[in-house]
Amino acid sequence: MKKVFLMALLLSAGMYSQAQIKYGVKAGANFYKVTGEEDLETSRKTKIGLAGGAFVNFSLSETFSVQPELLYSQEGNKQKEGSASIDLKLNYINIPVLLQYNASGFYGETGPQVGFLTSAKVKSKMGSDEETTDVKDSFKSINFSWAVGLGYRLSNGLGIGARYNIGISNIVDGEGVSAKSSGFHIGLSYTFGSK
User: Fold this and answer.
1) Furthest C-alpha separation in the chain
2) What secondary structure, in 3-state letters, does the chain show?
3) How far apart (Å, rounded) are the C-alpha atoms in residues 151 and 188?
């Protein structure tokens, strides 16, 4: 996976001098779950978080472009059983490199994403008692996923998009434990163009 990501990054950098370049900002909502082999699998709930950052779009032709992004992403998981609840808060700096197919304002996109863990905390609640614990040492510092999405860009630069990030690497740092972070992102973007 690392080789695929590096090749995509080098490919996009190599086309810098001959491509039409646009850049922009984006922000939106994440709907994530951490899936794995645990007793409370059935009690997992989707965690809602924020994501936002910047991107550069390199047009390769009228229909194809490559878009590397730099995003701050709130991910994690919620679990609830009776009066007890656990809220896992994972914060990443994600770098997706996406190949986009563009047609009449619509686009489809896919590509690898690498995430760098910046913080991991668990907020546990039992009745009225609450406790927050730093658990960053229990998670791997790098996470790999694959993104697939659709969107629409207006001629004035505004855009809307939806993306699903499929977790492909184990995010837990421990023997015999496996978990992956996957989820939807829905957001708005604004593209500043240079021809």
Assistant:
1) 61
2) CHHHHHHHHHHHHHCCCCCEEEEEEEEEEEEEEEEECCCCHHHEECEEEEEEEEEEEEECCCCEEEEEEEEEEEEEEEEEECCEEEEEEEEEEEEEEEEEEEECCEEEEEEEEEEEEEEEEEEEEECCEEEEEECHHHECCEEEEEEEEEEEECCCCEEEEEEEEEECCCCECCCCCCEEEEEEEEEEEEEEECC
3) 10
Q: Locate the domains of the chain by residue range.
A: 2-9+24-193
User: For the whole model, what pTM was predicted?
Assistant: 0.83
Q: Say whether domain 2-9+24-193 belongs to CATH 2.40.160.20.
A: yes
- Residue pLDDT, tens place only, 107-163: 999 999 999 999 999 999 887 788 999 999 999 999 999 999 999 999 999 999 999
How far is 166 from 126, CA to CA, in rounded Å? 32
Tell me how far apart the alpha carbons of residues 183 and 175 are, in angstroms, rounded to a whole number.
Answer: 25
> pLDDT, tens digit, for every residue of 60-97?
999 999 999 999 999 998 887 777 888 999 999 999 99
Closest Cα to residue 89, out of 139, 159, 158? Answer: 139
